[in-house]
Amino acid sequence: MLYKEPQRKFTFIVDTRYCKNAVAISKGADILTCESSFSAEESELAEDHGHMTSAHAAKLAKESKVKKLSLIHLSQRYDVIPKKILEEAKKVLKGTKIQVSVAEDLDKVEI
Predict the structure, then answer these.
(1) What topology does CATH give the domain 2-102?
(2) 47 — phi, psi (to 5°)?
(3) Is pLDDT at 81 greater than 80 in this prediction?
């Protein structure tokens, strides 16, 4: 999904693998809300299920030059996964100005 106004751009990407089309539609977004179903060490599992890892989502944000990355669609299989997912994404985004967070129910984000 892509929502764009002259002043704002919001991109929502879920249920897909990392691909160049996702980079293209996310380019310059104020916020990218992106799936991060698996940890970076589970890239084969992510590929098999057609999803992205935390590293894929961060790479997408970095290549798209977005301002904010909100990670969603995390696997419920792990108790500590949100922290791990967030740390993996931050590692990929190190040295950029991209803000990253793991979305929670009822979060409000100003664009």
Answers:
(1) Metallo-beta-lactamase; Chain A (3.60.15)
(2) -60, -45
(3) no
